[in-house]
Amino acid sequence: MARAQDFTIYTGTQFLVVHGLNYGDPLSSKADLYLDDVYRLKIKAQPTRLTLQTAATGRRHRVAPHSAIGAIGAAVHLDCQITLISDAGHTFDALIFVEVELGEIKQVYLSAFAMLQPDTDYRLIGIDRHVDPAKLVELHDPVFILARKSP
User: Fold this and answer.
1) Which residue has the higher pLDDT, 131 or 118?
2) What is the pTM of this model?
Protein backbone atom coordinates (compact mmCIF):
# COMPACT_ATOMS: atom_id res chain seq x y z
CA MET A 1 0.00 0.00 0.00
CA ALA A 2 1.39 3.41 -0.98
CA ARG A 3 1.55 6.28 1.47
CA ALA A 4 1.78 9.98 0.63
CA GLN A 5 4.20 12.47 2.16
CA ASP A 6 4.55 16.23 1.63
CA PHE A 7 7.89 18.01 1.29
CA THR A 8 8.70 21.69 1.21
CA ILE A 9 10.86 22.20 -1.82
CA TYR A 10 12.50 24.72 -4.08
CA THR A 11 13.22 23.82 -7.68
CA GLY A 12 16.81 23.62 -8.84
CA THR A 13 16.22 26.69 -11.02
CA GLN A 14 15.41 28.74 -7.90
CA PHE A 15 18.78 27.90 -6.28
CA LEU A 16 21.66 29.06 -8.50
CA VAL A 17 25.45 28.91 -8.27
CA VAL A 18 26.75 32.47 -7.81
CA HIS A 19 30.41 31.56 -7.30
CA GLY A 20 32.38 28.47 -8.20
CA LEU A 21 32.90 25.91 -10.90
CA ASN A 22 29.20 25.74 -11.85
CA TYR A 23 28.76 29.55 -11.90
CA GLY A 24 25.35 30.52 -13.30
CA ASP A 25 23.98 26.98 -13.25
CA PRO A 26 20.95 25.83 -11.25
CA LEU A 27 21.22 23.17 -8.57
CA SER A 28 21.60 19.79 -10.21
CA SER A 29 21.96 16.12 -9.37
CA LYS A 30 24.90 14.68 -7.41
CA ALA A 31 26.86 13.96 -10.59
CA ASP A 32 27.18 17.69 -11.28
CA LEU A 33 27.79 19.04 -7.76
CA TYR A 34 31.15 20.48 -6.71
CA LEU A 35 32.25 21.25 -3.18
CA ASP A 36 32.79 24.96 -2.45
CA ASP A 37 30.29 26.11 -5.08
CA VAL A 38 28.24 28.94 -3.56
CA TYR A 39 24.48 28.95 -4.13
CA ARG A 40 21.88 31.64 -3.64
CA LEU A 41 18.10 31.39 -3.53
CA LYS A 42 16.43 33.74 -6.00
CA ILE A 43 14.86 36.79 -4.34
CA LYS A 44 11.29 35.97 -5.37
CA ALA A 45 11.60 32.21 -4.87
CA GLN A 46 8.70 30.68 -2.98
CA PRO A 47 8.67 27.19 -1.51
CA THR A 48 6.09 24.79 -2.81
CA ARG A 49 4.73 21.40 -1.83
CA LEU A 50 5.92 18.22 -3.49
CA THR A 51 3.72 15.28 -2.53
CA LEU A 52 5.21 11.87 -3.10
CA GLN A 53 3.53 8.49 -2.98
CA THR A 54 5.90 5.91 -1.61
CA ALA A 55 5.59 2.19 -2.14
CA ALA A 56 5.40 0.01 0.97
CA THR A 57 9.07 -0.89 0.49
CA GLY A 58 9.99 2.79 0.91
CA ARG A 59 12.23 2.63 -2.16
CA ARG A 60 10.00 3.86 -4.99
CA HIS A 61 8.55 7.36 -5.05
CA ARG A 62 6.10 8.89 -7.50
CA VAL A 63 4.51 12.34 -7.72
CA ALA A 64 1.07 12.12 -6.09
CA PRO A 65 -2.06 13.38 -7.89
CA HIS A 66 -2.54 16.22 -5.36
CA SER A 67 1.06 17.48 -5.48
CA ALA A 68 1.47 21.22 -6.13
CA ILE A 69 4.42 20.52 -8.44
CA GLY A 70 5.72 17.71 -10.63
CA ALA A 71 4.24 15.49 -13.32
CA ILE A 72 1.62 13.24 -11.73
CA GLY A 73 2.92 9.67 -11.54
CA ALA A 74 6.49 10.60 -12.49
CA ALA A 75 9.29 8.74 -10.72
CA VAL A 76 11.22 10.75 -8.13
CA HIS A 77 14.52 9.53 -6.71
CA LEU A 78 16.25 10.62 -3.53
CA ASP A 79 19.49 11.65 -5.21
CA CYS A 80 21.71 12.74 -2.32
CA GLN A 81 22.03 14.69 0.90
CA ILE A 82 24.09 17.85 0.89
CA THR A 83 25.49 20.04 3.65
CA LEU A 84 25.48 23.79 3.22
CA ILE A 85 26.90 26.64 5.29
CA SER A 86 25.37 30.10 5.14
CA ASP A 87 27.43 33.25 4.93
CA ALA A 88 26.49 33.75 8.61
CA GLY A 89 28.17 30.42 9.51
CA HIS A 90 25.07 28.25 10.04
CA THR A 91 25.35 24.70 8.70
CA PHE A 92 22.43 22.49 7.74
CA ASP A 93 21.57 19.53 5.56
CA ALA A 94 19.23 19.29 2.60
CA LEU A 95 17.98 16.50 0.39
CA ILE A 96 18.03 16.62 -3.39
CA PHE A 97 15.24 14.82 -5.23
CA VAL A 98 15.35 14.18 -8.96
CA GLU A 99 12.21 13.73 -11.05
CA VAL A 100 12.85 11.55 -14.09
CA GLU A 101 10.95 10.65 -17.21
CA LEU A 102 12.14 8.05 -19.71
CA GLY A 103 15.54 8.00 -18.03
CA GLU A 104 16.09 11.76 -18.28
CA ILE A 105 16.09 14.34 -15.48
CA LYS A 106 13.04 16.56 -15.80
CA GLN A 107 13.32 18.49 -12.53
CA VAL A 108 15.60 18.81 -9.51
CA TYR A 109 14.12 19.62 -6.10
CA LEU A 110 15.81 20.85 -2.92
CA SER A 111 14.27 20.18 0.49
CA ALA A 112 16.28 21.80 3.28
CA PHE A 113 16.38 20.98 6.99
CA ALA A 114 16.41 24.75 7.66
CA MET A 115 14.64 27.81 6.31
CA LEU A 116 16.43 29.27 3.28
CA GLN A 117 16.67 33.03 2.93
CA PRO A 118 16.77 34.80 -0.43
CA ASP A 119 19.89 36.78 -1.25
CA THR A 120 21.98 34.72 1.18
CA ASP A 121 25.03 32.76 0.11
CA TYR A 122 25.17 29.04 0.88
CA ARG A 123 28.45 27.19 0.32
CA LEU A 124 28.31 23.48 -0.51
CA ILE A 125 30.55 21.75 2.03
CA GLY A 126 29.34 18.15 1.91
CA ILE A 127 27.78 15.63 -0.46
CA ASP A 128 26.49 12.30 0.85
CA ARG A 129 25.65 10.13 -2.13
CA HIS A 130 24.17 7.32 0.00
CA VAL A 131 21.17 8.59 1.93
CA ASP A 132 19.16 6.61 4.45
CA PRO A 133 15.49 6.75 3.28
CA ALA A 134 14.56 7.32 6.94
CA LYS A 135 15.80 10.90 6.43
CA LEU A 136 12.54 11.53 4.59
CA VAL A 137 10.65 11.38 7.88
CA GLU A 138 12.63 14.38 9.18
CA LEU A 139 11.36 16.52 6.30
CA HIS A 140 7.68 15.69 6.59
CA ASP A 141 4.92 18.30 6.35
CA PRO A 142 5.70 20.54 9.41
CA VAL A 143 8.53 22.24 7.53
CA PHE A 144 6.09 23.15 4.75
CA ILE A 145 3.67 24.68 7.24
CA LEU A 146 6.44 26.84 8.73
CA ALA A 147 7.73 27.86 5.32
CA ARG A 148 4.31 29.05 4.16
CA LYS A 149 3.95 31.29 7.22
CA SER A 150 7.22 33.09 6.68
CA PRO A 151 6.99 36.67 5.30
Assistant:
1) 118
2) 0.86
